[in-house]
Amino acid sequence: MVGFKGFWKTLGNIGKRLFYKRETKLSLYLFSAMHHTMIDIMANFYEDNYEDAMESLIDLVKPLSEEIISELLFETSVLGVSFKKIISKFKDPKDFAYIIDMAMYSVWGGGFKKIFSKTKYLSAIESSEKVHTYVLMMKSCPFCFLTMVSPEKFGAYRFGKLLTLTIEQIVQLSQDFLGNNFQVVAREVKCFHQGDPCGEIRIWLYPRDNLQLMESNPYLHQIK
Amino acid sequence: MKDLEYIKNFTPIAHGANLVQDYKNIQVAKSVSSFVYPQLYAFLVQNFEEKEVIRRLRELGRRAVTIFYSVNQTKLKKAATIPNIFMEIGKHSGEKIQIKNIVKKKKVVQSCLIKKYKCIFCTESYKMENIEVPFCYPSLAFFQHYYNLRSLYLGNLKPRLIHLEMVKTAEHDKDYCLYRMEAID
């Protein structure tokens, strides 16, 4: 028998597929090439300083990406059921991993499974960072695989920062909508470009009344 | 030729990330993938004169083609006619492309118009007021270099080189972009 959550997951699964199907799409090859080139053009402006280029690009992109993601999450309906309605059924952090996967599938379609593993939830007790944590493993990386720029040039940034930022915003906007008082922080803690055998994005939900917990997260000191 | 050298010498440094074949049929929704370009465009417009903005936007398209071919070298080796090559781009960009007014001389295409719907760059909501530089110069450069690099690699395509100029850019979502292609060699 399909439970309460199962019912909304079924609707979400149908919704994400229909949304993806009706969207205008571009090939991942072209998308990745454009991603790389836009970083290059910015780095060109900063005389080949990729760290400054990433910093500047992120500052520029943040407001618009927030607007677009907000539109996707809260103004999209498929077959009369809004994504907003589905999100509202996953208020509990332990259930919320499903929403991350649903949003990712809506953008990446079937490619999602080829690149990412299903999002894993770690409770505050299980997580080494002592807060609700989501772990998104990457089996391959469409951004890193086509670069010849050395990782050292990026300083504390990772090549997939824009993807990490997008995921961070998806979770932050959803958590705010759900009325959960969390500050969402995401980092790419493992990266093929850095020589790791896999990619891994970690998303932490920090209670806004206890933000000093961030101090003990080593990743936040090493990675921007 | 510098671009061809880059493509031939392409060696990925992110070992393990390279599952190229797996990406063959993967497509990404345009809506979420398009939030970087408008901001980069605005940044260039704020920092440079119109001519320099256009040069940098063309450069963006040119570099994107080079990176695209570096991981898609089989495409570079495949001969095709001008209309077929442009249609091939449409498959990657999700744009609807029509080739019009083809003028031929001794069976070789000398010029044509490329009419493009659903441009991946021209999204109405991000149009900026009082800015005359068309939004989709990278796309125009993409068409030009997609053909030119393949032609230079194969060495037997006719015409050998082409140049594209902007005729119009889409003014709203139902509208189209129009580029003029001229053979230059």
What does this structure look like?
The complex is a heterodimer of chains A (224) and B (185). Chain A contains eight helices and seven strands. Chain A is of the alpha+beta class. In chain A, a hairpin with a 2-residue loop joins strand 2 and strand 3 (81-82). Chain A has one domain: Muramoyl-pentapeptide Carboxypeptidase, domain 2 (2-Layer Sandwich), CATH 3.30.1380.20. The radius of gyration of chain A is 18 Å and the shape is globular. In chain B, a hairpin with a 2-residue loop joins strand 2 and strand 3 (108-117). Chain B has helices at 2-8, 30-33, 37-47, 50-70, 73-76, 82-93, 137-154, and strands at 27-29, 96-105, 108-117, 162-168, 176-183. The relative contact order of chain B is 0.16. Chain B has 185 residues and is of the alpha+beta class. Chains A and B meet through strand 1, helix 2, helix 3, helix 5 and helix 6 of A and strand 1, helix 2, helix 3, helix 4 and helix 6 of B. Strand 1 (25-27) of chain A pairs antiparallel with strand 1 (27-29) of chain B, so a sheet runs across the interface.
How are the elements arranged and paired?
The complex is a heterodimer of chains A (224) and B (185).
Chain A: H1 4-22, E1 25-27, H2 28-45, H3 50-74, E2 77-78, E3 81-82, H4 83-88, H5 97-108, H6 111-115, E4 120-122, E5 132-138, H7 161-178, E6 182-190, E7 199-207, H8 218-222
Antiparallel strand pairs in A: 2-3, 4-5, 5-7, 6-7
Chain B: H1 2-8, E1 27-29, H2 30-33, H3 37-47, H4 50-70, H5 73-76, H6 82-93, E2 96-105, E3 108-117, H7 137-154, E4 162-168, E5 176-183
Antiparallel strand pairs in B: 2-3, 3-5, 4-5
Helix pairs in contact in B: 1-4, 3-4, 4-7
Name some characteristics of this structure:
heterodimer, A: 224 residues, Muramoyl-pentapeptide Carboxypeptidase, domain 2, four-stranded antiparallel sheet, two-stranded antiparallel ribbon, globular, B: 185 residues, alpha+beta, 42% helix
Number of strands of chain A: 7
Q: How many helical stretches of chain B?
A: 7
Return residue spans of chain A where pLDDT drops below 50 for at least 5 consecutive residues.
none
* Total domains of chain B: 1
Shape of chain A: globular
Shape category of chain B: globular
CATH architecture of chain B: 2-Layer Sandwich
Order of helices and strands of chain B: HEHHHHHEEHEE
Report the CATH C-level class of chain A.
Alpha Beta
Number of helices of chain A: 8
Helix content of chain B: 40-55%
- Indicate the proportion of strand residues of chain A: 15-25%
Largest sheet descriptor of chain B: 4 strands, antiparallel
Percent helix of chain A, as a range, is 40-55%
Broad CATH class of chain B: Alpha Beta
Largest sheet of chain A: 4 strands, antiparallel
CATH topology of chain A: Muramoyl-pentapeptide Carboxypeptidase, domain 2
Low-confidence stretches of chain B: none
Strand line-up across the major sheet of chain B: 2-3-5-4
For this structure, the CATH topology of chain B is Muramoyl-pentapeptide Carboxypeptidase, domain 2
- How far the N terminus sits from the C terminus of chain A, by CA atoms, comes to 45 Å
